[in-house]
Amino acid sequence: ETGVTQSPTHLIKTRGQQVTLRCSSQSGHNTVSWYQQALGQGPQFIFQYYREEENGRGNFPPRFSGLQFPNYSSELNVNALELDDSALYLCASSLDLLLEQYFGPGTRLTVT
Amino acid sequence: GQQLNQSPQSMFIQEGEDVSMNCTSSSIFNTWLWYKQEPGEGPVLLIALYKAGELTSNGRLTAQFGITRKDSFLNISASIPSDVGIYFCAGQKGVYNTDKLIFGTGTRLQVFP
Hints:
heterodimer; A: mainly beta; 11 strands; B: six-stranded mixed beta sheet
């Protein structure tokens, strides 16, 4: 059974640029959630995708957008990057909206 | 964004000691989860709790869902060096994943041999 994988591992971008982060869900899981984890804090929910549709969103502006593909992998896109977007971005997958989510290792984004 | 309050913020203990940490909220939750995160990795699910008063164990870890549904507790018995990490509680108001999972502020655990 393959766990949740994320790419890239690290990324450095300049303020104003756009970024795309990728996530492959655990085998058999059809639900993907994205989280932002600032240094020293717990993860903050960005949004969730279930069977290719957005199924809930946290308090993040529209420049944070996502996508889920038929194989249930997912992308997180962030436009017009700001310095405060620097964080660890975590993807978590689960089966059929169940609460037991399994996290990937994260993508460390640095915005300069 | 909203975060749950965890205490203590950090703990420095000797190998073999027992550990207790808790998580509190001003709102009622119907599900509590406990995660452990090590440096450079994502959180790993330890225990899930679905009913008020529920007590669940996973090896040396025991977690309880508070009767008021506003808190949860995690105990680690006979700590070992590999228990080092940050422990997060997470709560959700629904039973299914239709509402966002809210994480705590974390308890950092250091274990000395």
